[in-house]
Amino acid sequence: MTSAVLTESRFRILVVEDQALMRALLERWLTEQPRFVLVGSARSGEEALSIIETARPDIAMVDYQLPGMDGLEFVRAARQQRPQLRALIISSLLDPLTCSRVQESGVEGYLEKDAPPESLAEALSAIANGRSYYSSTFRDVLVREGSKALAVGKVLSRREQQVLAHVLTRKTNKEIADLIGLSTRTVEFHRANLMAKLDATNIAELLDHAQMRGWKT
């Protein structure tokens, strides 16, 4: 287990990975990134929790399969200590159950372990900038298998889907109300509902989560 104190204005990264070789490779890669700095490294979720307060990471790179608590359980526990922590899950698993669990957990990203280094840089940059990042393979699994029961058409009403289409084109509530013949207050109600149902806090997340549930733009 390692931790470090950061004085520069770079994004603090915590690595949680039980495989020593993989952990060392991630640590080495981070030393070459001008925008990110390693502030902690741990072999398990329990070990990582013990350094959250001192390491103060902005982003955690977390293996899905960990001894003891798994990666998603670690993220939930870590956010009780540091609510602003964002997380990128890294794993070789791409089965529908795993992908659905990751999607429903609220983590900001998922990347396969065999992805190229440039994809890791892209994922971390997206998450650092407040966006989500899920690999195209992850999305394909959800669209093809894992998200059938959670598809937009099964989660949102027809009216909510209609509002969603206009929200994603960044129309205002008043513009949407005029287009579909509703009051602005009713549009606000539908908009709040669809944001809650798709677990989104902004338009970028709304688009990400809708696409993972089969929404076609």
How would you describe the overall organization of this protein?
This protein is an alpha/beta fold and 217 residues long. It folds into 2 domains: 2-146, Rossmann fold (3-Layer(aba) Sandwich), CATH 3.40.50.2300; 152-212, Arc Repressor Mutant, subunit A (Orthogonal Bundle), CATH 1.10.10. Helices cover 51% and strands 15% of the residues. The chain has a 7-stranded mixed sheet, sandwiched between helices.
Secondary structure layout plus pairing:
Blueprint: E1 2-3, E2 11-16, H1 20-31, E3 36-42, H2 45-49, H3 52-55, E4 59-63, H4 71-81, E5 86-91, H5 96-105, E6 109-112, H6 117-128, E7 133-134, H7 136-146, H8 152-155, H9 158-167, H10 173-180, H11 184-197, H12 203-212
Parallel strand pairs: 2-3, 2-4, 4-5, 5-6, 6-7
Antiparallel strand pairs: 1-3
Task: Based on the model shown, name its key terms.
Arc Repressor Mutant, subunit A; 2 domains; disordered N terminus; elongated; alpha/beta; 7-stranded mixed beta sheet; 217 residues; 7 strands; Rossmann fold
Amino-to-carboxy terminus distance: 45 Å
- How does the major sheet shape up? 7 strands, mixed
Low-confidence region ranges: 2-8
**CATH top level assignment of the largest domain:** Alpha Beta
The name CATH uses for the topology of the largest domain is: Rossmann fold
Q: Give the strand tally.
A: 7
Q: Supply the CATH architecture of the largest domain.
A: 3-Layer(aba) Sandwich
